[in-house]
Amino acid sequence: xxxxxxxxxxxxxGETLTELAHADPRIVILDADLGSSTKGxxxxxxxxxxxxxxxxxxxxxxxxAAGIATMGFIPYISTxxxxxxxxxxDQVRVLIAQTRANVKITGAYAGLFTGQAGKTHQIVDxxxxxxxxxxxxxxxxxxxxxxxxxxxxxxxxxxxxxxRLVRDATxxxxxxxxxxxxxxxxxxxxxxxxxxxxxxxxTSRVVDAAEILAAGGIEAHVVHVPTIKPLDxxxxxxxxERTGRVITIEEHSVIGGxxxxxxxTLSELRPTRxxxxxxxxxxxxxxxxxxxxxxxxxxxxxxxxTVTALLRES
Length: 314
Description:
Blueprint: E1 5-8, H1 9-23, E2 27-31, H2 35-38, H3 41-46, E3 51-53, H4 58-69, E4 74-80, H5 81-86, H6 89-97, E5 104-108, H7 126-131, E6 137-139, H8 144-156, E7 161-164, E8 169-171, E9 186-189, E10 194-198, H9 202-215, E11 220-224, E12 227-229, H10 233-243, E13 245-253, H11 258-269, E14 273-279, H12 289-295, H13 300-313
Parallel strand pairs: 2-3, 2-4, 4-5, 5-7, 6-7, 10-11, 10-13, 13-14
Antiparallel strand pairs: 1-8, 6-12, 9-11
Helix pairs in contact: 1-8, 4-6, 9-13, 10-11
């Protein structure tokens, strides 16, 4: 059965930061003229004095965020991933990561689904970039429930965090009452034939794929990784030991992302065959969400098809 739809993570961003700011006067949002898209404007209406409109000047915005963090504020960034990670990369590296500044880079419009804006806005190597950044925490929530809990956690953490948020409503994997535990992977389905490891919104599609596989006699063990850095290496090793076969699936480049992190871990701690499903060293195309998922093999049926083929090859 296909998982139900939840709400858009960008809406959760605006609402959760607004709620947190009621209790914590240190929280501010820096916006790069995209508040209506990221839903940072929800915060603006409630806390206009703490909503800093920086204009289309993202490099300056990240620098200002680092500066006001030294004054005791907790700045959150409101813009697309393309403008939060890639364009101001030097500022992220030198001013935020190197100094361990308490800045929260909450990048909306991650991955393929950027409102058909095309390859200029579709950033599918952000995890690779941020995972390699010393001092940077990397979180990729799967649904609205987990996004809310992860954002609440960021306000308590002292240091730089990158939260990968997606634009559109996602399938809901977790019910109300779920608690995000930093640094811990979550087993969302038990199985003994193959371990499927995923992150972000892709995990829900992998759960659906596992149901398709089960109908064909393949019982998949599905592990969701909301904290990509630091990685829950113990959980990854345990999941590999359970089945002896690991396949990673991510809406991201297979180079340096979740698949790379899992492969690195298992090559050192528990040598296991790892195969990666994701974007294969390409610039992506513009299109509808459904078309892009099908094109790049990330829809539930396509994932199930690929997993089945990989298992038959072994």
